[in-house]
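Appendix B: complex inputs.
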Amino acid sequence: MGLSRKKKISQLVVYMVLILGSVLMVIPFFWMILTSFKTYKEVIALPIQWLPAQWKFDNYAQVLGKLDFLRYYRNTILVTVTTVSVMTFFAALAAYTFARMNFPGKNLLFGLLLIVYMVPPQMTMVPKYMMIVKLGWVDTLAGIVVPNLFSVYTMFMLKQFFASVPGDMDAAAKIDGCSYFGIFWRVDLPLVKNGLIAITVLNVLWSWNDLLWPLIATSTDRMRVLSVAIATLNNSDGSQYQLLMAAGVLAILPMLIIYGVCQQYFIEGITSSGVKG
Amino acid sequence: MKSPMMKKEMRSRGKIKKEWLWAYVFLAPMFLGTLVFGLFPILYSFFLSVTKWDLLSGFQGMAGIENFISVFTNPTTLYEIRNTLVYSAATVPITLMFSLLFANLLSKGIRGKGIFRIIYFLPNIIMPTAVAMVWRWLLNTKYGLVNMILGAVGLPTPSWISDPNFIMTSLIIVGVWSGIGYNTIILLAAIQGLSRDMYESAELDGAGERVKFFKITLPLVSPSLFFLLTMGIMKAMRAFDMIYMFIGKDPWSAGGPLLDAVRTMVYGIYFNGFTRMDMGMASAESVVLFVMILIVTGLQFKLQEKWVNYD
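Resulting structure:
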C-alpha cells in the first residue's frame, strides 16, 4: 500500500518535470506568435499585456509587403531546393559507389574525403569567398549554392544505409543487362528510401536555416535569403519587436509544417546519426 | 585456340574494367567538388595565414608568423579564444546534464512519450537567427517576459543582453535551450536500447532508482555521451549565429566591453575577414581554431579510456 503510493508520487514528479521542460521549450514560440499580432503600443505596455486587443495581420502584411519578404521567401526556397536535391544526388551516387563497387584507390579516395570532412567549414569561408569573387558569383544563386553541394557527411550517412540493405539484387539486375546507373537508380536507391528521406529533411532544415555562408556570399538583397533578412531586420529595426516576431514566424513556418508532417523522419535521421557516430 | 576458361576470365576482366570506369564516373562529381570547394580552400587558408592579404587590394607580401603573433597578442582575439572555450565548456556539459535527466525520465514507460519527444526537439527545427531574435525579446530588460516573471517573484532582473556581465550567461542559456532536444533524443534511443534484464535483476537485489541510474544506465550510455560531448564541443566551438544576432551587424558601435564579453573565434574570423578585410589575420585565426578543435577532440579521445564503457 505504502509502496504503491510512493510510486504514484514519483510518477507525478516525473510528469511534472517533463511538463515543466515542455513549457520551457514552447513558451518562446507562444510569445513569438502573440507578439507578432500586437501593436507596438501593446508590445511595450507596462504592466505586461498578454493578448493583443485585436488579432490582426497588419504586421505580417508589412513584413511581406514593405520589407520584401516575398522575395526572400522565393530566394530561400530556390536555394534550399537546388542545394538539397543536387547535394543528395551527388552524395548518394558516391555513397553507393563506396558501399557496393570495387575499384582501385577506393580507400585512398575515401580517406581523402574523410580528411576534408574533419575540417570545419567555417575555417574555409575566407578562401571560399575569394573563389566566388573570382568566379563573379557574389550575389548569385550559384555563389550561395555551389560551394555547399558536396556534403561528405551526407555521403557517410547514405553509405551506412546502403551497407545495411542486402546487395543480392544487384547481381540479378546485372544479369538482366541493367546498366550500373540503372542498378543504382532503380534497384538500390528505392531500398534506402527511408534513410534518404531522413537525411534529406535534415539537409533541408540545415540549408533553410544556414546564416553564415549566405551572409558572406550576398551583399545586396537580390539573392538574400530569410536567415540573412532576419539578421538584417534585427540589426536595423531592433526594437520593433512586433515586426521582428512576425518576420520570425514567417521564416520558421515552412520548417514547422515539414516537421509536423514528417517528424518521424527527423527523429530517425537524428537517431541514426547518433548511433553510428 | 583459347580455352573457354580463358575466355570467361577475359570477359570478367572486361567487366571489372567497366565497373572501375563507372565507379570513377559516379564518384567524379562528389570528388572533384570536394577537391575544389573543400580541399583547395583548406590548403589556401593555410597559405593565406602566412601572407598579408587585403580583401580589396589582394596580396601585400608574406607575413611569416606575424598573423599568428597577432592572434595570440591582440586583446580582441584573446577574448575570442577565451569566450569560445568558456561557451563550449559551459554549454555542452549543462546541456548533457539536462538531456540525461529528460531522457532518463522519458524512458520510464510514461504516457505521451512521443509528444514530449516532438516538443523537446522543436527548438532544433527553428532557424537560429529567429531563435536569437525571440530570446533577445524574451530577455529584454524592461519589457521582456523573463524579467517580468523574475520581477514578479522578487528575483533580480538583470540586463541580460546589454550588460557585459550577463551577456555570456544569456548566450549559454540559449545554447542549452537549443541543444537539449537533439541530445535527449539520442540518449533516449541509447537508454531504450539497453536490455531490461539488468534492471530487473538489480531490482531483485533491491536497487533503487538512483543506484540503477548511476550503476547501470550511466556507464552503459557512456559511448553515446562521449559521441554527444565530442560533437557538441566541436559545434559549440564554431558558434556564430547567436553572437552575430546579439551584438548586431555594426560591431564598431556595439563595441567595447559588451562585444568583448561574447565575441567568439568564428565571429572573429568573420569580423577580421569581412569587416576589417584582413584575410591573412582571418585565415590565421581559422588555422588556430582548427588546431584547437583538433587538440580538444584529441584530448577527449585520450580521456575517454578513463570513463567510456565499451563492453
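Chain A touches chain B through 92 residues (CB under 8 Å).
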